[in-house]
Design a protein that fits this description.
The protein is of the alpha/beta class. The protein has 3 domains: about 110 residues, no CATH class; about 190 residues, NagB/RpiA/CoA transferase-like (Rossmann fold, 3-Layer(aba) Sandwich), CATH 3.40.50; about 70 residues, no CATH class. Helices cover about 50% and strands about 10% of the residues. The protein is built from 23 helices and 12 strands. The strands form 3 sheets. The chain has a 6-stranded parallel sheet, sandwiched between helices. Helix 9 runs parallel beside helix 10. The longest helix has 22 residues. The protein binds iron/sulfur cluster (SF4). Iron/sulfur cluster (SF4) binds next to helix 14 and helix 16.
């Protein structure tokens, strides 16, 4: 997957001019938010359920090292194999070597953000192994070589004509049709064929349970269940923060996850796997490999601010609440994670050097924080990142302040330091505003701060200051 986080601004402008994107964004986030709201109503005490979900994430993070050790111990006892991957290269190498050792020419995949983060499909392709996405939306996005538009609807914005054309081009469809059901059936036939004689399947992990060594996946299409039961070898890739203490915690997290993601009380298929197929079982893989991915998370965990980003359960509710996502959609975020979820995860995982626009594309309205079932303080984290960016923090690859901005702040501080300076400053500003202002709004100060004024509304200063008017009134 091509990473384009540093093109946030350009892609956002393209998407703002894209009528189709705008049409979808008027419907999708609102509809999903309404469904979430309704589904939360099915809890006897929605507020308490929300708080319990947040507390589970808080405890899971506080005990993360211990929980990971317990999970590993129990998963090994269940017969699973554990691979700790320090970074994406290590994870990709392990999975590709495993596929080769099993003689797999191709693998199938369940929808997973983590394998997008790894760039696994590209790596496998370089090793001569095809990777087939089996979630319908991901399959369409894969054929079109597009990133996901929305975490629960990766290709929801793609016109049916485009799907017909790509299906015909890739041999998924024999006869042209625009009937969505026929298109869906064609994809199903095509992918079902891949499950026959499948050597290796790959999925992500929604939740890992420490006390039982179980990995849990939730979905609506049944393709993850196929990926888990059809092949002889199953690889489940999880980021290390996915572990929770108990099965009871996992079940509650599932309740809030499903409600927050798709507005369902529960997904259509929930799979709990504790080890590979047992002697008395008919279905399931003979080998279960669990890849636990770090990829910078240990460093994130060391910092009490960035650690908060690891609470995320990837429900996507914040995307639907975000006014910025609601205008630009998923493409500008340029990587596996979009919306506020991406704005807190991507800078921590990839550094600030390529995410400077991402952390600033936020109005700090707090809507994401209010609905987040994991209890993430997105605005607080974004302010932390902005601060680290202007301070050129080496750990997060901050870039340092723009010298013009630094000078402007110094001048402003100087102006505010003495009353005389302030009077001179406000007089100059008021004159400049009369010269360059348009009506009641300031739209720039000549050659200064054009970009700043492009995205901000600043009322033009009054002709006379309060002090001047006060003096006149007394006279
Ligand atoms: S940040 Fe919160 S609301 Fe957004 S996807 Fe993660 S858990 Fe869901």
């Amino acid at each position: 997957m091509k990473v384009t986080t540093d093109r946030f601004r350009q892609t956002a402008l393209e998407e703002l001019a894209n009528a189709r994107t705008q049409k979808f964004l008027q419907i999708l986030p609102l509809r999903l938010s309404a469904r979430r709201q309704e589904a939360y109503g099915s809890f006897s005490d929605p507020e308490a359920a929300h708080r319990l979900g947040q507390a589970i994430r808080g405890e899971a993070l506080a005990r993360l090292p211990e929980l990971l050790e317990t999970f590993e111990r129990n998963a090994l006892a269940n017969g699973a194999k554990i691979f700790w991957a320090a970074d994406s290269q290590a994870a990709n190498r392990y999975i590709a070597d495993l596929a080769r050792s099993k003689g797999a020419r191709y693998v199938t995949k369940g929808k997973s953000m983590i394998t997008e983060e790894l760039g696994l499909n590209d790596h496998l392709a370089q090793c001569g192994i095809s990777a087939w996405e089996t979630d319908l939306g991901e399959f369409i996005a894969q054929l079109l070589e597009k990133p996901p538009f929305h975490i629960v609807g990766p290709a929801i914005n793609i016109p049916v004509e485009q799907i017909r054309d790509i299906f015909l081009e890739k041999g998924v469809l024999d006869q042209p049709t625009l009937d969505p059901v026929t298109l869906g059936r064609a994809a199903r036939r095509f992918l079902r064929d891949k499950f026959r004689d499948l050597q290796m399947g790959i999925t992500g992990v929604n939740i890992a349970v420490a006390e039982t060594g179980t990995v849990i996946n939730v979905e609506n299409e049944g393709n993850i269940r196929f990926n888990k039961s059809a092949p002889k070898t199953l690889v489940c890739v999880m980021s290390l923060e996915k572990v929770v203490p108990t099965l009871a915690d996992a079940l509650h997290q599932l309740r809030v996850l499903c409600r927050s993601a798709t507005g369902q009380a529960a997904g259509a298929y929930i799979s709990l796997d504790s080890g590979p197929k047992k002697a008395d079982e008919t279905d399931g893989p003979e080998e279960l490999h669990i890849v636990i991915l770090d990829n910078g998370r240990s460093a994130i965990y060391q910092n009490r601010h960035t650690r908060e980003a690891l609470r995320c359960i990837r429900c996507g509710a914040c995307l639907n609440a975000c006014p910025v996502y609601g205008k630009v959609g998923g493409y500008p975020y340029g990587w596996a994670y979009s919306g506020p979820m991406g704005q807190v995860l991507t800078p921590a995982l990839r550094g600030l050097a390529e995410t400077g626009d991402l952390i600033r594309a936020c109005t700090l309205c707090h809507r994401c924080k209010t609905i987040c079932p994991a209890g993430i303080d997105h605005p607080g984290l974004l302010l932390h990142y902005r601060n680290k960016d202007v301070q050129a923090d080496p750990l997060l690859q901050g870039r340092g302040a723009d010298p013009r901005e630094r000078l402007a702040h110094r001048l402003f501080a100087l102006a505010g330091s003495r009353y005389t300076y302030w009077r001179i400053f406000s007089k100059v500003l008021s004159r400049a505003a009369r010269l360059f202002g348009k009506g009641a709004m300031l739209r720039g100060l000549g050659p200064l701060g054009r970009g700043w004024f492009l995205s901000r509304d600043l009322p033009a200063p009054a002709k006379k200051s309060f002090h001047e008017r006060w003096r006149q009134r007394k006279d």
